Amino acid sequence: MYRFPLQKVLAYRQLKEEEAQARLAQVQREAETARQAYREAENAFLAGQADYSRRQSQQLRLSEALQASEYLALLAERLQACEAELMKQEERLQQQIAETEKAMQERKVMDKLREKDYARYQYRQAQAEQRQTDEIARNVFLRQAAE
Predict the structure, then answer these.
(1) Number of domains observed in the structure of the chain
(2) pTM for this one?
(3) Which residues contact 93 (CB under 8 A, 6 or more apart)?
């Protein structure tokens, strides 16, 4: 019966790969959330800019103009914060992709080692079977020759 001598290592690497894939899925969700927040902030900023431009063409009181200007500045700050978070999440995503690829590569190396070891096992088994067949044929020949 075949048993891969490094089965525990292979199982460990498979577990690490699964964990890396789970982390990757989580980071992808977080990055998508950051992308959505950025799009929303960008849309709010563009809408605020359009509203501010529209209000400037009208005659506004000073307090309304200041309020609109402050609101636009807050939207710009929010957009910058969302952009910074998005960049951070994208960087995390790239790091996690690299980790996941590394874990997959390490597992594939172990799979190839197992395949090669199994091929050697099959070859040794075939050789042993051939030796048995040869021994049986030799014994049959010697019995027939002795008769």
Answers:
(1) 1
(2) 0.76
(3) 27, 28, 31
- CATH code, domain carrying 116: 1.10.287.1700
C-alpha distance from residue 2 to each of 82, 111, 115, 121, 130 (Å):
56, 15, 11, 7, 18
Residue 27 phi, psi dihedral angles, 5° rounding: -65, -35
Give residue 27's identity as a one-letter amino acid code: V
Q: Report the distance separating Cα 132 and Cα 147, nearest Å.
A: 23
Domain region containing 100: 7-146
pLDDT in tens, the chain (147 residues): 999 999 999 999 999 999 999 999 999 999 999 999 999 999 999 999 988 888 777 776 777 878 888 999 999 999 999 999 999 999 999 999 999 999 999 999 999 999 999 999 999 999 999 999 999 999 999 989 887
Q: Which two tokens stand for residue 24?
A: 């990757």
- Which has the closest alpha carbon to 26: 82, 102, 95, 81? 95
